[in-house]
What does this fold into?
Amino acid sequence: MKEKQYIAYEGHSFTVEWYVSENGESLALDYYQSLDTGQRKKFLFLAKRMGDFGRISDKTKFNYEGDQIYAFKPHPERFLCFFIQDSKIIITNGFRKKQQKLPQGEKERALACRENYQRRLKEGTYYE
It folds into this structure.
């Protein structure tokens, strides 16, 4: 897999990437591509802000969800992600917010992606 192919945005503070499964699929990227242009722009604005400045102070736009999982929040969409040491943010999954509370299944998916990413990175098989 070529790393550049899955970069959503590369900024001064962070590189924002789409998580890619072992079979080469990215649920987050697929979800993003299913959105209309306006919703895509909302997400890219937030990714660019985080990539360039390293933070988004507005909790209605970016929030900590527990267990080292964070959410980009371009209303009404949500994109869950996690940070890794070499200044990267890995976006694991996206969904439309339909309730006040974060759906447990979406958070579990993000946690499973993070675990898989870390294992494959350690093995040296993620960026092949």
